[in-house]
């Protein structure tokens, strides 16, 4: 275990690091974050012994590093410095071999099988074996960086100190390098301390993070305790937004630049919806922030085009998102900029209505097919049928994340109430249906105009959504039933 207690130090009389304490267990990776000049490299230099410790103590497994003979310290700690100054041009293999220096009794006098294996293994891990005979100064910045990481790995030390290991690397090599280092940490029980500029990479790979500000610890802990909007904003002096990683339980941040969006005022208007037998289409001049359960581009994003496409009741295609994407492209829309849904309902029966509230307007669009009603409270064996209620809620206003979700809930409750009023039955159970088996919902907002933090049923916008979705769904069901009779 690496233990740092009340560490202070800097350059001559200039104290940079002030009273820093932390511990890193074997197999653990600690990331050091902080703005330029906050003292990250200086802290590393104090730990590695490049700079003298003014106050405090650094111990490895209980033993003070000041008591380590230099070569033993080098066998214990491998350091990847921020800048690599190499006066002499070496080959890649020679450079990596220098990592074995602490294991030699004299310069290459006792090159052992173990030395050879460590060098070969380190080159393999860093994917540089194929240019082992190349001169280091003839490699790209990223290739050089991997050579120096290989040199540190070849040292076979139990502690790795890395100053921006992903410097110069493309995204694939960043991932490869950090995957490798992380794997080494786990398999070989290494203790890793690494400086990062990329907060997201640090959060993804590190067990703990230390946020440094003006030489002092601003915050230390698990990534979710450190990568917090207010702390990152305070230390880096920039606006950020925090969101979850899509696959890992790790926080990620996005910079919020001061670049303003195109403020050409956009209003979603009912009259601008194009309704045909093929589809309901709405094309916005500016992207709308959208949350949906669509076939193409579900989830959240920013999109300009919204399509609810009519498909035959017998539509049954394995890869419907791919087929729907090509349909979108055939209609000369970009599939990356279009949210696409499907329905077997006649799209010319779509109900589109505009509702006005004190903050602005909401446009509701519903296509309702209820031959396939489902009472969600009854679990029975079902086969999938196309028979869908697709509901769009387009808001002329600025919705919070919370409001997007509340708008969906409010819309779903209103839809269910409409089915209840119209006595739409689940054909299998004979009870009132709450929806159909393939309903979709979409909430989109211009993100211009009034800020609407909530969209529950008693808010102004919630009232419009509730009434609007109810009325449009009732009307949609009536039109659907009339058409079925005919
Ligand atoms: N050799 C030096 N002599 C005197 N002061 C130095 C020296 N090296 C760095 N400093 C000062 O120490 C402070 C911390 O520098 P350090 O390099 O540790 O910051 P950092 O957090 O690693 O920054 P960066 O993100 O820019 O790499 C800075 O104010 C810097 O000017």
UniProtKB/TrEMBL annotation:
Q: Which parts of the chain span the membrane according to its record? A: none
> Which UniProt keywords are listed?
ATP-binding, Nucleotide-binding, Translocase, Transport
Q: Which GO terms describe its molecular function?
A: ATP binding; ATP hydrolysis activity
Q: Where is the ABC transporter domain?
A: 2-239
Name this protein carries in UniProt: ABC transporter ATP-binding protein
For the keyword ATP-binding, the answer is yes
PANTHER family documented for this protein: HEMIN IMPORT ATP-BINDING PROTEIN HMUV
- Tell me which species this is from: Planococcus halotolerans
> Where is the organism placed in the taxonomic lineage, from the top?
Bacteria, Bacillati, Bacillota, Bacilli, Bacillales
